[in-house]
Write a structure and sequence with these properties.
245 residues, alpha/beta, Aspartate Aminotransferase, domain 2, Aspartate Aminotransferase, domain 1, 2 domains, five-stranded mixed sheet, three-stranded mixed sheet
Length: 245
């Protein structure tokens, strides 16, 4: 039986993103720590090194990396993953051989792709700091990020996603999105193409305004999943769109 721990204390809120702290808390209470490592990928962060028992990936994102197939990964010790394997085998909700082959081929370039995603994302984050149309840029490897020190301890790189907060709120964001010419506009992420998303009206639209704000998502927030294009091309498209916002 899996024991679930439910706390709402100041200590939990302060430490919720510290993987080692969460692992110690879980194991002290005879519970399992499962980490969704989709955004980081195994290249950027390895939760097992901090004590995670199960690691989950949406392989549809960076693992595939080209928007071709749907898939998922559940990694961990055999005694934890065997029940999942047995369930998938019996119910048929498993990958087709072709999709499995696509993902296995994608893994051959994962390291190269993620390195480029992260390099482009960091450069964009640095370039857009102080932009006249942006209130804030959030990226884990920016020294201005409130958990920069923690990110440096747990992550090899800063990841392929960043957010910008556009001045003028939702109306300005919609103007910005309508001016995008090169980049893609969708709720997906982890693709070779750079993807622009307005979380408040897409991925997080079901949340209350209070919950969204607690998660740092304002009406002016734009999420950017940075792709593999030349960084100058990504910057130029975002910049020209911002100038119309």
């Amino acid at each position: 039986m899996i024991k679930l721990i439910k706390f709402r204390t100041l200590e939990i809120l302060r430490n919720i993103r510290k993987l080692k702290w969460l692992a110690d808390l879980s194991h002290t209470n005879n519970a399992i720590l499962a980490v969704d490592n989709c955004f980081a990928t195994p290249i950027v962060q390895k939760p097992v090194l901090f004590g995670a028992d199960l690691i989950i990936h949406s392989a549809t994102k960076f693992i595939d990396g080209q928007g071709r197939v749907l898939g998922g990964l559940i990694l961990g010790k055999k005694e934890l993953t065997s029940p999942v394997y047995d369930f998938l085998r019996r119910t048929g909700s498993s990958l087709s051989p072709f999709n499995a082959w696509i993902l296995s081929k994608s893994l051959e370039t994962l390291d190269l792709r993620v390195e480029r995603h992260c390099k482009n994302a960091l450069e964009l984050a640095e370039r857009f700091q102080g932009h006249e149309k942006i209130n804030a840029v959030r990226y884990p490897f920016l020294p201005t990020h409130d958990q920069f020190d923690l990110a440096k301890k747990q992550m090899k790189l800063g990841g392929g996603l960043l957010t910008i907060e556009v001045k003028g709120g939702q109306a300005a964001c919609f103007k910005f999105i309508n001016q995008i010419r090169l980049l893609s506009i969708t709720a997906n992420l982890g693709d070779t193409r750079t993807i622009i998303t307005h979380p408040a009206t897409t991925t997080h639209s079901k949340l209350s305004e209070e919950d969204r704000l607690n998660a740092g998502i304002t009406d002016g927030t734009i999420r950017i999943s940075v792709g593999l294009e030349h960084v100058d091309d990504i910057y130029d498209d975002i910049n020209q769109a911002l100038n119309h916002a």
